[in-house]
C-alpha cells in the first residue's frame, strides 16, 4: 500500500461491457479496503452512466479489456478511457482476467459480510459483468501492488450508485457541484466557489472524500436523511455538544480511516533480496499503522464522554456501537502489551521515524535493541557533524532538516555564504533563499542511519506479528470506527459548521414527504448569496397537479441562477444538511437532469445544437417519475421555428410524466402551454424598464410578461456601437410589421381540419392527465375559447 499522504485518488476501477450495452464496474478503494460493484445498461452512446461513475470514483488506475467487444454504435470502454481520461493510467488486461466465476469466488472469500447478507447468490446470475471486473481489479492489485487482501475483511457493496440519487457527469459540471466553471466561461469573479468548496471544512481526508461522494450521489432513503437532520438539530441546539465533538475529533489522527486498510492488506511475502528495501518500507507502514491505531483508540474515551447523553438516533447509535463496544478496549490492551505507552503518532518525518523505531517496548527483542542503539548513535553523529560544520565554517544558521526520501541534509541561508561554499559540500541546490547541500560524511552517516532504521522496522514487524494478526480478526470494528469518524467529520465539521457560521435561521431543516409537493419558501443560492449581499430569495412550488414551471424573463434576469439554486438546495437536503430557505417541504428525488448549455462540449465532433439534442435525448431516455429536470433555454441553438417546435414538444413529453420540470426560456409563445395544460405554471422574473434601461429585481412573479426588445436594450448596455443598435432596431420593427400581417393571413387560412386535429390531440392529453375535475373543466374552457378565437 503506498502512502499517499494527500488527497490523491485511491481507487482502482475495472470496467467491462457486453454487446447488449451493459457495463460492469468494480471500484476498489485501496484506502478504505472496500469494493463497490455496479452493473447497468448504458443507455447513451456517450457513456453518460459510466462517465458519472468514473467521475464519482476519480480513479488512479482504470483496468479495461482489449477493445474488441464494443457494442454496436459505441466506442467501447477502452476507447472511452483514452478519449476522456487520458490523464488516468489505463491498464489493458486480457479477457481471461475478467472471469466472473473467479470474481464471485474471490468476493465470497474476501467480503467481510456473509454472501447471503450481500445478496451475492441472486446477484451472481444477473450481474456477472461487475464480478468479472472485480476479478480483474483484485488480480491487478495483487500483482502490481503486491498486496493480498485478507479473507473476510473487504467491505463489498453492490449497486452502490443505485441506492443514491443519480446526477450525471454533465449535470455535475452544470451545477458546479465539485468545481466552479472557469471564471472566463461565465464572466463571474474568481470568488465563485463550488458547493464542495463551500462545505469543505472537514478536517480529515476521509471526511472530505465522504462529503464529495455524498454531493455526487446524495441519499435517497428518507430515514437516513432524517437521521442526519435530527443529528444536526441536536448539534445546532446544543452548543456544548457541537464544540465538544469538534474538539474531540481533532484528537483522532487525520489518517485514521487509512489505518484500517493496512490491516486488511497483507503484504506479499518477499523472497528475493532486491525487494528487501521495499519490505522494510512496508514494515514501516505497518508499524506506523499500529501507532496510529493506538493514538485513535486513546482518543475514544474522550468521544464517549462527549456523546454520553446524546438524544438523536444517529449519535446515540454511534455511542452504542462504538463507545460501548468492548472490543476497542481489548485491542488497546493488546497494543499496550507490546507498544510503549509514550509512543505517539507523529507527522514530522524524523520524529515519526524515531517513534516507529522505538515503538516496541525495550527488552522484548535483543536484536531490536542493538539496532536501536546503532540508530541512536548515527543520529547523534549526524547532529554532531552539523555542530562541527557550524563552528568550522562559521555557519551559525546551518540547519539540519530531514525528509523521508533523502534523509538528513543541510540548509544554509544564501546570505550567510560569502563567496563559494567550501569544497566539502556537495549536491548543492538553490531552494528559495536557502542553499541545500550535503557532504560525503553526511551521506555515509545517512546510509548507516537508514539501514539501522530499516533493521529496527524489520525486527519490530516480527515483534508485532501476533498483535497484528489479532487486530486483523477484529477488522470489522476498525472499519466501523473509520466510517464513524468520517461521518462525524462531515456532519460536525462541515454541515453543522456551515450552519453555525450563518446568522440564525438562515439555514433551515427541510421536511420530507413521501409523495408530496416540492415547496421552497424564500430559497437562496447557497454560493451566490455569500457573494451578493442583497441576494433576492425566491419560492418554488411543484406538485403532481402542477409539475412543470416555465420561467421567463430577459437575459440577466436570474433564470439560470434560479435553476441552479433549486438543484443545489435539493442536493443539500438529500445529503442530510439544512438548506438556505425560510421553509421547505420536499419529496425525494431519484435523479437530477440538467440541460444548461454552459459546459464545454467534451465530444469535439458535436456542434452546440447536437450536444443540446444529445443531452435532451439522454434526459428523455432516463427520466423517471421521481426525477427533477431543469432545462435552460432548450432549442435556442437552431432556427427559431425548429427550436420552438422542439421546446414545445419536449415540454409536452415531460408533461406526460410525473417528473418535476423547470424550464427557463426566452420563447414567449411557450407560455401558451399553460392555456392547454393545467399542470403548467408560468412565472417570470420581474424587471423594470426606465429610460430604456432594464432594472433587474430578481424576484419571481406569476404569469408571463412581455418586455419588448430587451435584447436590443442589453446589447446597447454591453457597448455595441449605437449605429449597429439603431440598424438592429429598424430591422426588428420591419420584421414585427411583417409578422403581424402574416399572422392575420394565416389566421384566415387556418384549415378547420387542422383545428379539429389539435382539439382532438389536446382532449386526448387531458384524458390521460391526472388532474382534478376543476382543473380539467378549466382547461376545457380555455380550449374552447382558443378554438373560438382561432388561436389553436
Ligand atoms: N436572486 C438573485 N439575487 C441577486 N442577484 C442575482 C439573483 N439571480 C441572479 N443574480 C445575478 O444576476 C446575474 C445573471 O443571472 P443569470 O445568469 O441567472 O441570468 P439569466 O436570466 O439566466 O441570463 P441569460 O438568459 O442571459 O442566460 C448572476 O450572475 C447573478 O450575479
TrEMBL record:
Magnesium as a keyword of this entry, yes or no, is: no
Q: Which GO terms describe its biological process?
A: mismatch repair; reciprocal meiotic recombination
Output the SMART domains linked to this UniProt entry.
MUTSac, MUTSd
> What range(s) does the DNA mismatch repair protein MutS core domain occupy?
190-531
Highest taxon, organism lineage: Eukaryota
Care to name a GO molecular-function term for this sequence? ATP binding
* Any one GO CC term of the record: nucleus
Record family assignment: Belongs to the DNA mismatch repair MutS family.
Put simply, this protein is called DNA mismatch repair protein MSH4
Can you name the source organism? Cannabis sativa
Amino acid at each position: 500500500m503506498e502512502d499517499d499522504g494527500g488527497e490523491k485518488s485511491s481507487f482502482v476501477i475495472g470496467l467491462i461491457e457486453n454487446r447488449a450495452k451493459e457495463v460492469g464496474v468494480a471500484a476498489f478503494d485501496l484506502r478504505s479496503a472496500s469494493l463497490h460493484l455496479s452493473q447497468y445498461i448504458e443507455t447513451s452512446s456517450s457513456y453518460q452512466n459510466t462517465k458519472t461513475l468514473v467521475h464519482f470514483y476519480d480513479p488512479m488506475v482504470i483496468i479495461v479489456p482489449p477493445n474488441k467487444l464494443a457494442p454496436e454504435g459505441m466506442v467501447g470502454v477502452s476507447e472511452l478511457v483514452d478519449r476522456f481520461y487520458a490523464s488516468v493510467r489505463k491498464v489493458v488486461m486480457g479477457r481471461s482476467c475478467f472471469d466472473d466465476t473467479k470474481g464471485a469466488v474471490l468476493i465470497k472469500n474476501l467480503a467481510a459480510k456473509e454472501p447471503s447478507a450481500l445478496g451475492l447468490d441472486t446477484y451472481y446470475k444477473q450481474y456477472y459483468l461487475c464480478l468479472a471486473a472485480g476479478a480483474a481489479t483484485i488480480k491487478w492489485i495483487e500483482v502490481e501492488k503486491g498486496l493480498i487482501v485478507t479473507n473476510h475483511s473487504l467491505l463489498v457493496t453492490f449497486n452502490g450508485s443505485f441506492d443514491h440519487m443519480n446526477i450525471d457527469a454533465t449535470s455535475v459540471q452544470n451545477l458546479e457541484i465539485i468545481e466552479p466553471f472557469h471564471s472566463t466561461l461565465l464572466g463571474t469573479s474568481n470568488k465563485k466557489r463550488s458547493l464542495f468548496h463551500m462545505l469543505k471544512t472537514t478536517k480529515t481526508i476521509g471526511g472530505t472524500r465522504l462529503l464529495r461522494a455524498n454531493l455526487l450521489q446524495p441519499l435517497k432513503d428518507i430515514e437516513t436523511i432524517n437521521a442526519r437532520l435530527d443529528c444536526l438539530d441536536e448539534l445546532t441546539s446544543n452548543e456544548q455538544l457541537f464544540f465538544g465533538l469538534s474538539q474531540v475529533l481533532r484528537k483522532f489522527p487525520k489518517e485514521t480511516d487509512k489505518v484500517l486498510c493496512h490491516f486488511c492488506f497483507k503484504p506479499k511475502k518477499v523472497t528475493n533480496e532486491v525487494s528487501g528495501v521495499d519490505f522494510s518500507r512496508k514494515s514501516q507502514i505497518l508499524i506506523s499503522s499500529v501507532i496510529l491505531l493506538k493514538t485513535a483508540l486513546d482518543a475514544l474515551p474522550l468521544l464517549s464522554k462527549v456523546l454520553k447523553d446524546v438524544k438523536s438516533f444517529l449519535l446515540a447509535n454511534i455511542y452504542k456501537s462504538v463507545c460501548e463496544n468492548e472490543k476497542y478496549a481489548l485491542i488497546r490492551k493488546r497494543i499496550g502489551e507490546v507498544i510503549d505507552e509514550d509512543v505517539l503518532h507523529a507527522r514530522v518525518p524524523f520524529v515519526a521515524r524515531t517513534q516507529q523505531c522505538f515503538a516496541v517496548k525495550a527488552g522484548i527483542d535483543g536484536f531490536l535493541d542493538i539496532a536501536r542503539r546503532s540508530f541512536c548513535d548515527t543520529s547523534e553523529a549526524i547532529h554532531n557533524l552539523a555542530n562541527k560544520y557550524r563552528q568550522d565554517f562559521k555557519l551559525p544558521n546551518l540547519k539540519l532538516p530531514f525528509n523521508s526520501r533523502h534523509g538528513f541534509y543541510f540548509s544554509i541561508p544564501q546570505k550567510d555564504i560569502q563567496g563559494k561554499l567550501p569544497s566539502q559540500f556537495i549536491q548543492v541546490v538553490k531552494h528559495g533563499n536557502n542553499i541545500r547541500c550535503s557532504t560525503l560524511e553526511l551521506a555515509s552517516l545517512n546510509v548507516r542511519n537508514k539501514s539501522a532504521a530499516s533493521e529496527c522496522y524489520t525486527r519490530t514487524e516480527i515483534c508485532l506479528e501476533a498483535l497484528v494478526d489479532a487486530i486483523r480478526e477484529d477488522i470489522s470494528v476498525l472499519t466501523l470506527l473509520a466510517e464513524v469518524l468520517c461521518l462525524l467529520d462531515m456532519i460536525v465539521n462541515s454541515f453543522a459548521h456551515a450552519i453555525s457560521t450563518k446568522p440564525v435561521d438562515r439555514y433551515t431543516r427541510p421536511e420530507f414527504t413521501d409523495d408530496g409537493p416540492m415547496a421552497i419558501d424564500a430559497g437562496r443560492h447557497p454560493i451566490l448569496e455569500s457573494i451578493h449581499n442583497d441576494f433576492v430569495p425566491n419560492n418554488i412550488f411543484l406538485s403532481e397537479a402542477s409539475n412543470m414551471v416555465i420561467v421567463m424573463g430577459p437575459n440577466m434576469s436570474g433564470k439560470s441562477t434560479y435553476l441552479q439554486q433549486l438543484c443545489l438546495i435539493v442536493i443539500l437536503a438529500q445529503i442530510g444538511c439544512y438548506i438556505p430557505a425560510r421553509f421547505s417541504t420536499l419529496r425525494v428525488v431519484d435523479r437530477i437532469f440538467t440541460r444548461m448549455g454552459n459546459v464545454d462540449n467534451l465530444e469535439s465532433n458535436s456542434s452546440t445544437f447536437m450536444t443540446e439534442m444529445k443531452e435532451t435525448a439522454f434526459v428523455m431516455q432516463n427520466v423517471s417519475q421521481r426525477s427533477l429536470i431543469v432545462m435552460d433555454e432548450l432549442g435556442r441553438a437552431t432556427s427559431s421555428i425548429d427550436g420552438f417546435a422542439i421546446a414545445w414538444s419536449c415540454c409536452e413529453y415531460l408533461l406526460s410524466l410525473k417528473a418535476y420540470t423547470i424550464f427557463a426560456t426566452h420563447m414567449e409563445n411557450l407560455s401558451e402551454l399553460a392555456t392547454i395544460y393545467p399542470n403548467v405554471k408560468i412565472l417570470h422574473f420581474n424587471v423594470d424598464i426606465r429610460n430604456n434601461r432594464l432594472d433587474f429585481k430578481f424576484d419571481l412573479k406569476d404569469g408571463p410578461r412581455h418586455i419588448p426588445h430587451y435584447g436590443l436594450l442589453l446589447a446597447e448596455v454591453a457597448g455595441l456601437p449605437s449605429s449597429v443598435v439603431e440598424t438592429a432596431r429598424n430591422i426588428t420593427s420591419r420584421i414585427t410589421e411583417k409578422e403581424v400581417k402574416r399572422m392575420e393571413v394565416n389566421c384566415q387560412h387556418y384549415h378547420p381540419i387542422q383545428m379539429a386535429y389539435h382539439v382532438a390531440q389536446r382532449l386526448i392529453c387531458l384524458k390521460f392527465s391526472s388532474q382534478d375535475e376543476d382543473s380539467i373543466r378549466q382547461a376545457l374552457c380555455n380550449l374552447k375559447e382558443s378554438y373560438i378565437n382561432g388561436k389553436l
